[in-house]
Amino acid sequence: MSDTSQPRLALTDLSKTYDGSTPVLDGISLTVGAGEFFSIVGPSGAGKTTLLRCLTGLMRPTDGQVTLDGIPLSEPSPKMSLVFQEYTRSLMPWASIGKNVALPLRARGVPRAERTSRVAKVLAEVGLSGVEAKYPWQLSGGMQQRVAIARALVTEPEVLVMDEPFASVDAQTRMDLEDLTRRLQQDHRMTIVLVTHDIDEAVYLSDQIAVLSKNPARLVEVVDVPLGAERDQIHTREMSTFADLRGRILRTIRDVQTQPV
Amino acid sequence: MSEATSTLLWRPTGGVKLRQVGLAAAGFVVWLGLWQWMTTTGPMADTDGLPTASRTLSSTLELAGSSQLWSSLGTTLWLVAIALAFAVVAGIAAGVAMGFSPVVSALLDPISQVLRPIPAVVWLPLLLMVLGPAPELGIAMGFLGGVWAVLVQAQVGVRDIDPVILETSRAMCLPRRLTLSTIVLPSAVPYFATGIRISAAFILMLVIGAGILGGAPGLGQLILVAQQTGDPARVFGLVLWSGLLGLTFNSILTAGEALLRQHRGGR
């Protein structure tokens, strides 16, 4: 981030206004360095999902632009993968896990044999070896989200964007998935952009956190998270730096929420 | 949900089943008894063209041994199958195209809105003039009556796709062709199944109707001939056979629909 190299993802003066209403996003600029774990937090209804849709190319911003490796993004890029909160809705219930995970490879014209081996490899990486023939509804929620993560990883993306990916699973599963995500990011030196409403989660996972305000969403601050590369669900969360950052971000969000509009 | 339905259909419990069969049989006995009484000593005795229950039953049973009945049933089912095949292919193709592409929808939807409400029987005089009392008459009538249910269901099915999975496919950079074959079509399968079931019932009705009203071959034609030769017991017997055919046909379709829905995977 602090070096002079080009950022992986850059948002410049991004604004979004839906037809005939007040702006949702207002002049958001931020940069995400390669290999960084970057989270976006903000009060409920701040337009985090709108921001995510704009930065993945699923939606055109009204103003400003998004660049991926310096190239302006106007539609979803094959270098980017997306994981949604609703795994039950983003997986195809009529297709086996193997077919679900292989789909992005089919879109890229990868031959069948290579698809099979890459699917097996990525499923092993998320701890789900040998489930190819099963169907999504035969797996638990946490396992289904692992499948969705595997599908996002199978194309070896440079950037993984996650929209509240752990909001629909139980607490224990959530911790497992957080650690899995962090480990995958380290192993693949991948850039991750995580949108979450959970400040603890953001602090635990991230290298940097962008805090948004609400009505419209503006960038309030970008917080560095100096917790090191290795994170641990118990030790990291006990560190005073963790508590300080958590308190600081929560306070900021409470302040922007209570401000008169 | 579909699993529960098929369990109900195929695995009835013994005791309840026996009682129900007994009650159903009692209902039939009362019905036939009343009928027999009405047409022999009761108020409708000696009404012209109204056969007694016993004559109708014996005629119905007699028909079971008639090769004419079976070949007519076969013809009717064959015409239904052809009409259904056309209706399914055309209905799904047009419905999916209309659901998937706003341009195609703007082009075809007005036509569909105009043609759909026309009761299919209304086409009969025109078709009879063009085709004559041929098998094609039955097929054409069946098609015109059956295509709309498939088309509308296909359209709704495609429009009803979960936006999350569509976003997912966009984010995966799937080409349109692959989105269509791997996401849109499988996701709409339950709608196709419902459309086909509704459509097939219409088609059966219209193929038989085309026989009765227009002389197209099959069960309908057999009824028409029995009527023209003044044999009401035979007409009535054929009516009962049509009912039996419809019942069998519908159970098969309902089971088929449940199977298709199940195959798609339950959530």
TrEMBL record, chain A:
Q: Does the keyword NADP apply?
A: no
Q: Which SUPFAM superfamilies match?
A: P-loop containing nucleoside triphosphate hydrolases
PROSITE patterns membership: ABC_TRANSPORTER_1 (PS00211), ABC_TRANSPORTER_2 (PS50893)
Q: Where do the ABC transporter domain residues begin and end?
A: 9-239
What is the superkingdom listed in this entry's lineage? Answer: Bacteria
Please provide, alphabetically and separated by semicolons, the GO molecular function terms listed in this UniProt record. Answer: ATP binding; ATP hydrolysis activity
Q: Which UniProt keywords apply?
A: ATP-binding, Nucleotide-binding, Transport
Instruction: Identify the Pfam families for this entry.
Output: ABC_tran (PF00005)
Q: Carries keyword Transport?
A: yes
Q: Per its record, how is this protein called by name? A: ABC transporter ATP-binding protein
Q: Which organism is it from?
A: Nocardioides albidus
From TrEMBL, chain B:
Which keywords does this Swiss-Prot/TrEMBL entry list? Answer: Cell membrane, Membrane, Transmembrane, Transmembrane helix, Transport
Major localization listed first in the record, in broad terms: membrane
Keyword Transmembrane listed:
yes
Where does the ABC transmembrane type-1 domain lie? 73-257
Q: How does it sit in the membrane?
A: Multi-pass membrane protein
Do the record's keywords include Transmembrane helix? yes
Which PROSITE patterns does the protein's record reference?
A: ABC_TM1 (PS50928)
Q: Listed GO cellular component terms?
A: plasma membrane
Q: Family, per the entry?
A: Belongs to the binding-protein-dependent transport system permease family.
Name of this chain's protein: ABC transporter permease
